[in-house]
Design goal:
With 326 residues, the chain is mainly alpha-helical. The protein has 2 domains: 29 residues; 248 residues, MetI-like fold, CATH 1.10.3720. It has 12 helices and 4 strands; from the N terminus they run ββαββααααααααααα. The chain has a two-stranded antiparallel sheet. The protein has a two-stranded antiparallel sheet with strand order 3-4. The N and C termini lie far apart (69 Å).
Amino acid sequence: MHKNKNNGHTEVSIFFPEAVAKIGSCLVRAKRRIVTRKTIPYLLYFPAFIATVGILYPFFRSVVLSFYEYNPTYGPAYFIGVQNYIDLFQGVTSPSFWLSLRVTLIYAFANISIQLILGLGIALLLVRTFAGYRIVRAVVLFPFMIPPIIEAMMWKLMYEPVTGIINYIGSFLGMPRIGWLGDAAWALPSVIVIDVHNFTPFVAIILLAGLQSLPKRPFEAAQVDGASSWFILKNLTFPLLKPVLYVVLLFRMIESLIMFDMIYAATHGGPANATMSIHVNAYYHGMRWTMFGTSFAFLVILWAMVFSGSFFIIRAWRKALEARMV
C-alpha cells in the first residue's frame, strides 16, 4: 500500500499484482506442506512394502513350483499336482524324507533344550555383580560373534581324528581316538555341540536382559520373608521370565529347524545321512540332482513346521505376557 498527499487529499493505491503473488506463494507453500504430510508416511512404508514383496514372492513361487515336476535337464516344468508330496510321505523319496525329519527334530529339540538350560544358568550367574563382571559378559559373547560356517570349520579342525585337539585331550584320559564327524553314531551329537557352543551366548544375553528387567520389589519381599533361592527361582523368576523365555524359544526354534550352513560345512549331511536335515536334503535334491519340484516340496513342509511352531509359541507368549501384567 502506498500513500500520497496531494492538495490536502490522501491518495491510497494498492499494488494488486504484488499482493496476489504473495498470497499465491503462501497458498502454494501451504499446499506443499499438506501434500508432504500426507505423502511422507507412504514413502516411509514403501521400503517395508518392497521388503515384504521380496520375502513373500520367493515363498509363493516355491509353493507353486512344488506342484510341478521341474528338472531343467529334461525340459520345461509341467504340473503334477501333489505328486511330489505323495512321494515324500509314501513314495520313492519317503525314506529320505522321514530320515531328514527325524534328524531335524532331534537336532532342534536337543539344541533348544541344552541352550535354554545352559543359557539360563549363565544368565543367573552373570546377573550378579562381581569384580570384572563386565569383562566376563563380553567374553561370553565371543562365540556368538563367529559366523556359523566359520564355527563349523573351526570345530571340524578340532574334531580331526589324528590332529584334532579333542582327541589329543581324550588320549590323556584314556579315551580311544574317535572320528567325531566321520562316525554315523557321533556325527549328529558333534554337530549339536557346535550349535550349542555358537548360540548359547545369544540365549544367555537375552535371558540376562530379561532378568535385569524384572521388578525388584517381589524379590526383596521374598528375601525379607526368608524364602529360599529355589523358592524364588521357581515361584518368582520363572513365571516373570516366561515371556522372555518364549521369545528365545521362538528364535532358536526357527534357527534350529532351518539350519543349513553349519551342518553342511561340518558334515555335508553325512556320514551315511546321519546329519541329513530337511534343509540339507532340499539342497541336494535341488542343486545337486536338479529335482527342483521335490526340493521345493521339502522346503514347503519345513516352512509349515516353522509356521506351526511359531504360532503356538507366540500364542503361549501372549498368555504369559497377559498373566505377568495382571
